[in-house]
Amino acid sequence: PETSLSYIFPEAVRVVETSMEAIKAIRNIKAEKNVAPSKKIKAVILADEKLATVKAGEAYLRSMANISELSFTVDKEDIPSDAVSAVIDGIEIYIPLDELVDFKEELERLKKEKSRLEGEVKRSAGMLANSGFTSKAPAEKIQAERDKLKSYEEMLGKVNEQLKTAISKLS
């Protein structure tokens, strides 16, 4: 078979490839934040040279990434300060955090997680404070428990920070 150059559309290929990358980035953000793929969200796309290419693929983005409101900008001032972002070739995609997170549900989840971690810290610290454990257990077991305690304390610190953010969003 022979092909004709009249059947090759490089600009259309660029539009579709750029759209596919943007859709993947948006879906990855949703997956990272445990948001249902079917949930409609708002997005802001920052692009300079690729603005026309991204705008040409707007229909693909809206339908395949479930975007209810899509805006384009070339200035970072139009982007919400608490937005989650993804960067693909010459394009930055921003999704406002309040679009991804139901802060009431997140607050409840974080409270449960905080309670669980506080229990783990208390249990681990209690084991390490128990002279019967520290005198009889192998050094590896004691070190493993110290490492667990440190890890639980770090996770608890992160959960406390997230709680502050969630509480401030609800205020």
Would you give an account of this structure?
There is one protein chain. The protein has 171 residues and is of the alpha+beta class. Helix content is 61%, strand content 15%. Strands 2-1-4-3 form a four-stranded mixed beta sheet. Strand 3 and strand 4 form a beta hairpin. Helix 1 packs parallel to helix 3 and helix 5 packs antiparallel against helix 7. The N and C termini lie far apart (67 Å).
Largest sheet: 4 strands, mixed
User: Which consecutive residue ranges, at least 5 long each, have pLDDT under 50?
Assistant: none
Q: Tell me the total number of β-strands.
A: 4
**Residues in β-strands, percent:** 15-25%
Q: Which geometry do the CA atoms define? A: elongated
Please give the count of helices: 7
Distance between the termini: 67 Å
| Helix percentage range | 55-70%
Using the CA coordinates, give the radius of gyration.
24 Å
Question: What order do the helices and strands follow?
Answer: HEHHEEEHHHH
Entry keywords:
single chain; alpha+beta; 171 residues
Write the layout of secondary structure elements.
Layout: H1 10-32, E1 41-47, H2 51-56, H3 58-64, E2 67-73, E3 83-88, E4 91-96, H4 97-100, H5 103-129, H6 131-136, H7 139-170
Parallel strand pairs: 1-2
Antiparallel strand pairs: 1-4, 3-4
Summarize, please.
The protein is an alpha+beta fold and 171 residues long. Helices cover 61% and strands 15% of the residues.
